[in-house]
Write a structure and sequence with these properties.
19 helices; 44% helix; Rossmann fold; single chain; Serine Threonine Protein Phosphatase 5, Tetratricopeptide repeat; five-stranded parallel β-sheet; 3 domains; binds flavin-adenine dinucleotide; alpha/beta; DNA Cyclobutane Dipyrimidine Photolyase, subunit A, domain 3
């Protein structure tokens, strides 16, 4: 007989939740979620994401309650709260979803702890050996893809038998130390229409809603994913899997399995393959962060390349970037989208990241920290990994994007930029860089080149 503390952070779902399957006959378990006070502070998480997280926690608690299972919710420092709970309920072992970053690993120090890599595709027998982890994404993908042609990696189903072993908790009043979710902050109507229904609202990111939406996406929109995924906004141009994956309301193994099932029924095509390809990027950063935990947060990273920007530089340039006032409409539109919705497309993220470090000369870690605070889909490995990757702090060389060129290519008619910034005040083109008091128009000479090219065409 064992007595477990099931630490359900990052696993707010019944489907493919190996924690809930763990206790066997004679065992006892207590299900717990803790809102880590540092990560949940306004400095590190926007009000919008805190609200989303609270909504999802309370929803998960209610779903477990419907099965007769209490979920203890706490806030505080897990390194302090967990030992207290172990002692209070006479539990001997903590079982949790394996993280990727040192901060979460540190919570296990000194405790009898068991990790289950429940949020990775490549878990259990498929788990990569970190010593021989390929350096580049391409090599990583080529190495792992053949193993993933099977329907899905090992799948676990919650067993009601196991759930019956969960301890009952009588002190439910302790839940009151957590704030209830506040009324939703509505998105501006024009933007809400350009995102999936109810985007950002916790009800739409619950397990049941997410599974239904993704199944519908596969049926109706997966076929155009490869063509549409570079768009900047739209209700179904991409999968919008990142929020439920990062908040733990969807299992990546389930997502993979649904795509594979669709492929087995209707055939694989470029789009279905590409969505799986993108999910492997997520995997790559997860395992790479475990291999090089500190390089993801250190300016020079692995030290293999000269990274752009000046160490710790911030100041006005950073503020303008954060507020969407750099003078380059494409960058400003993306940053204002982030501020208003907590979301940005992958194309937008690449461009604004590159712009901050290469054009504005800022330390990339300021950008990563701003994204950490703002993004609804914030995930430590994906966020810090992508920033470090663009900066050249990992294995490959820095990647600079020409934001003006990208604006003209991916927002040709400037519909996205106009949606966010409105029509330009003067008769200028919407993508034309603009000057502000004491702040010159960025990339102005490139704009002149662009105009000349237009005239020549
Ligand atoms: C600077 C920067 C910061 C980022 N920060 C985050 C973050 O905090 N959280 C996050 O989930 N993604 C992050 N991404 C990756 C990517 O931009 C988002 O996952 C994607 O835009 C979310 O939209 P989607 O779910 O519709 O993506 P889709 O295009 O439909 O892709 C499907 C899934 O594949 C995965 N994926 C796709 N691209 C990447 C990528 N480049 N890296 C890792 N996984 C990927 C995600 O899980 C995504 O949900 C970041 C990218 C950049 C360039």
């Amino acid at each position: 007989m064992s007595r477990y503390l099931l630490f359900c952070n990052d696993l707010l779902r019944l489907d493919d939740n190996p924690l809930l399957c763990l206790p066997s006959d004679g065992d006892a378990a207590l299900a717990v979620c803790i809102l880590p006070q540092h990560q949940f502070s306004p400095k590190r998480a926007s009000a919008r994401r805190r609200q989303l997280q609270l909504g999802l926690l309370h929803d998960f608690q209610q779903r477990l309650a419907a099965l007769g299972i209490p979920l203890l919710l706490r806030s505080g420092d897990p390194a302090v709260v967990l030992p207290q709970l172990l002692q209070q309920y006479q539990l001997v072992r903590v079982v949790a979803a394996e993280p990727t970053a040192p901060e979460e690993y540190s919570w296990a120090a000194g405790l009898n702890w068991h990790w289950l890599d429940a949020n990775s595709l490549l878990a259990d027998k498929l788990r990569p050996d970190l010593y021989t982890l390929p350096r580049s994404f391409t090599a990583f993908r080529q190495q792992r893809e053949p193993e993933l042609q099977v329907l899905a990696p090992q799948q676990t189903q919650p067993s009601i038998l196991a759930l019956n072993k969960i301890l009952s908790v009588t002190d439910v009043t302790e839940l009151s130390d957590l704030p209830r979710p506040e009324p939703d902050q509505p998105l501006p109507v024009a933007l809400a229409q350009q995102l999936p229904d109810g985007f950002g609202h916790w009800q739409q990111q619950r397990e049941s809603a997410v599974l239904a939406r993704f199944s519908e996406y596969i049926q109706q929109h997966l076929s155009h994913y490869k063509l549409s995924r570079n768009a900047l906004i739209g209700a179904d141009f991409a999968s919008f899997l990142s929020v439920p994956l990062s908040r733990g309301t969807l299992s990546v193994r389930r997502a993979w399995q649904l795509i594979r099932q669709h492929e087995l029924q209707f055939g694989q095509n470029e789009s279905s393959y590409w969505l799986r390809f993108e999910l492997l990027w997520r995997e790559y950063f997860r395992h790479l962060q475990r291999k090089h935990p500190l390089a993801f947060f250190c300016r020079s990273g692995l030290g293999l390349h000269q990274v752009p920007g000046t160490a710790s530089s911030a100041g006005e340039a950073l503020q303008r970037w954060q507020q969407g006032q750099t003078g380059l409409p494409f960058i400003d539109a993306n940053m204002q989208l982030l501020a208003q919705t907590g979301w940005m497309s992958n194309r937008g993220r690449q461009n604004v990241a590159s712009y901050l470090m290469f054009q504005l000369g800022c330390d990339w870690r300021h950008g990563a920290a701003w994204f950490e605070q703002q993004l609804l889909d914030y995930d430590v490995a994906s966020n810090w990994g992508n920033w470090a990757y663009i900066a050249g702090a990992l294995y490959s060389a820095p990647r600079s994007f020409n934001a003006l060129k990208q604006a003209v290519e991916y927002d040709h008619a400037a519909t996205f930029t106009s949606l966010l910034l409105g029509a330009p005040q003067t008769g200028n083109h919407r993508h034309q860089p603009y000057a502000q008091p004491n702040w010159p128009a960025p990339q102005a000479w490139q704009w002149q080149q662009y105009l000349q090219q237009l005239r020549a065409d």
